[in-house]
Amino acid sequence: MFAARFERFGPPEVLSVGDLPEPHAGPGEVRIRVRAAGVSPVDLAIRAGRSRSPVTLPHIPGVDAAGVVDEGPGIGDEVFGAVDVARLGGASAEFAVLAFWAPKPPSMPWEQAGGAASGVETATRALDLLDVGAGSTLLIDGASGGVGSLAVGLALARGARVLGTGAPENREFLAGLGAIPVAYGPGLRERVPETVDAALDVAGKGSLPDLVALTGSPSTVVTLADFSGPEHGVRVSVGALGGQPDGRHGLAHAAKLFEEGRFAVPVQRVFPLAEAAAAHAVTGPRRGKIVLRVS
């Protein structure tokens, strides 16, 4: 099969497209013919050699994908999902094996579906921990990136009021998502214009003391990116690829919200698979997901 892969760690230029053996679905898995695959921060870290998780070279990046099932239950179904945590890759290829998945709404573009799975599940888990619901006010620190922008949409669908921090150039993007934009960086406590019930840290840039002060308690703050959280009494939520599979319910709910017109996956840029290196090299403000079009 054709796949984007790298044979050594390094900059985006180590990526190329070539032939590798096809994977096959095991028990509790499906194999899909991939239509689109997401490019996530974990992919960049692994490629650059910054991940503590061991990977075998050559390695195919990509944890999120959408496509048509061709092995396992539901052959012919259009689905979106993510790979198993032990693989930490494999999605940026002609075929990929998914460990968890949900039916793709027929009207959902492949690019949105391909970049959704791990971010949707990660955001859903955090919102559940914070008990975000109708009438609550949520502050998301780092709201414009892949996971942050999904958390905005999912929180709004729950009936919450959302404030989102971002760089000045992302102000219009955040407002377009439905969030109240707040300037990103030090001094956050003085810039938030209203009472906050809960806070989600996606940025991991040292904002936890401010977030605890704004919400009034460490119990109302969850971080996805700052592993000093326990020092502040703040819970650290693992990503979607960790934890127990039976705790994953975000994908099916997000699909339902999409069909109701209440949720979408923000996509910043789409690249063909042949330009995987360019997709990994995107710099500047992040506004949603970077996605590879595979077939």
From TrEMBL:
It comes from the Bacteria. SUPFAM superfamilies: GroES-like, NAD(P)-binding Rossmann-fold domains. This is NADP-dependent oxidoreductase. It comes from Amycolatopsis heterodermiae. The keyword NADP applies. Residues 10-292 form the Enoyl reductase (ER) domain. Its EC number is 1.-.-.-. Keywords: NADP, Oxidoreductase.
